[in-house]
Amino acid sequence: MDFQYAPAPESRDVVDIRPSYGLFIDGEFTDGHGEPFKSIDPSNEETLAEIACADSADVDRAVKAARTAYDKVWGPMPGRERAKYLYRIARIVQERARELAVLESIDNGKPIRESRDVDVPLVAAHFFYYAGWADKLSYAGFGADPKALGVAGQVIPWNFPLLMLAWKIAPALACGNTVVLKPAETTPLTALAFAEICRQADLPPGVVNIVTGAGDTGRLLVGHDGIDKVAFTGSTDVGKQIARGVAGTDKKVTLELGGKAANVIFDDAPLDQAVEGIVNGIFFNQGHVCCAGSRLLVQESVAEELLARLKTRMATLRVGDPLDKNTDIGAINSAEQLQKIRMLSEVGEQEGAERWSPPCELPQRGFWFAPTVFTSVAQSHRIAREEIFGPVLSVLTFRTPAEAVEKANNTPYGLSAGVWTDKGSRILWMAERLRAGVIWANTFNKFDPASPFGGYKESGYGREGGRHGLEAYLDV
Ligand code: NAD
């Protein structure tokens, strides 16, 4: 049945975007000394605001502010007092949830349904969760009186701007560290709104500092002598550069990098549920997800039927205005990312895979890519090996469980995987053999602040979330 949808736009009136933004250092918004840059709305290419760029003097100022705050205020503060600030931040995030969700969708291009129902609630949940740990660190399994590391330099990507900020800042603060965080250059606005939230929560100046800028600012931050810890989420290439840069220093590092997850469908899986899981696995957040289920491995005997059902489902996906509450797939975050998705998709065709997208009309302005599936994919194809980071699914088949494991593990990455089957024993058998940090069974892309997240191999090292996530910010 074909449903007609009336437009259901979320109002932009709840956000107040200023024409320009400064850096957030020592509790104040200040000018940057680098060349300012623009943040645009990827759904229509309109400029949203001009953003200050931090140069080396600015980064230095931010690190010094964080050091002073660590030495004088935040480090000596008892955990139960730190917890109060974190709870307060969590509550303000909840109070301002609608505004933050709209702002995130405007700056990032993701559907409002996701920023409203996934990103922002998880941000609040993260702060609540780590607030709970702040006065219980002695019971976390890292010794009787674990100490903070000091100042953390944190660099995050553009795919979940505010959520990645929460993943970085909440555990760092709970453990007694202070932070300097650099958001991605295409999505700085919610980090700057978070700076306001820090002020609203009366967080002591210097505990959280936000420096905006591009890769150069990130390099200055992670290379700064005054930081004790580097936390990075982003591309594997930059992750490797950072790992080389900190080698031989005392800095502790956690890296959360790319992925090429296998989503494995056995012939006894409930196929309609699996189709929903596949769609959620690869089209959630336009596929800009490091743990996206970008390689579908389907058992040969059900491949034809599953693909037919998948295509029927894909034809119902609604691509368009991120602020429309009915939108399933929003805008691609940047022209560069769109270019990369297009390039790899063309390579897929050239290498002999079969490309299919449902008929779908894309808006004229902005950055858009139709949901796409490739069949007849070989393991050697670039679309089966490289992270596309877009709404593009590569389908391979297998005959036996052993072959499924071999193909799933045939990747330089190891962040996540999915298994769909009716048999509990098979789930456990697969989970033992899949080399991935997170394995979902009969579901996909489920996140909870209490559960650790992180990768094997080129997906990085260290864990974020849960009790394990504390370790990255403690001197253990
Ligand atoms: P990126 O690694 O270039 O950028 C991530 C962050 O690192 C940004 O804040 C950026 O400004 C900063 N950065 C860039 N160069 C740096 C350097 N030398 N030192 C310190 N910081 C630096 O990622 P990208 O360009 O946004 O995306 C490229 C590819 O990375 C994507 O296509 C995707 O495959 C992958 N990616 C993965 C994740 C993830 O969550 N694992 C997130 C975003 C992108």
Strand order of the largest sheet: 13-14-15-12-11-16-17
- Proportion of residues in helical segments: 25-40%
CATH architecture of the largest domain: 3-Layer(aba) Sandwich
List each distinct ligand once.
nicotinamide-adenine-dinucleotide
Instruction: Give the CATH superfamily of the largest domain.
Output: Aldehyde Dehydrogenase, Chain A, domain 1
User: For the residues shown, what is the average pLDDT?
Assistant: 97
Point out poorly predicted stretches: none
- Proportion of residues in extended strands: 15-25%
CATH topology of the largest domain: Aldehyde Dehydrogenase, Chain A, domain 1
Description of the structure:
The protein has 476 residues and is α/β, with parallel strands linked by helices. It has two domains: 12-257 and 459-471, 3-Layer(aba) Sandwich (Aldehyde Dehydrogenase, Chain A, domain 1); 262-441, Aldehyde Dehydrogenase, Chain A, domain 2. Helix content is 39%, strand content 16%. It is built from 15 helices and 18 strands. The protein has helices spanning 56-74, 79-95, 97-108, 112-134, 161-174, 189-200, 215-223, 236-246, 271-283, 300-314, 335-350, 382-385, 401-409, 424-433, 468-471; strands spanning 20-21, 23-25, 28-30, 37-41, 46-51, 151-155, 178-182, 208-210, 229-233, 252-256, 262-265, 295-299, 354-356, 372-375, 392-398, 416-420, 438-441, 460-461. The strands form four sheets. It has a seven-stranded mixed beta sheet with strand order 13-14-15-12-11-16-17, with helices on both faces. The N and C termini lie far apart (59 Å). Residues 155-159, 182, 184-185, 214-215, 218-219, 222, 233-235, 238, 241-242, 256-258, 290, 337, 340, 387, 389 line the site of nicotinamide-adenine-dinucleotide.
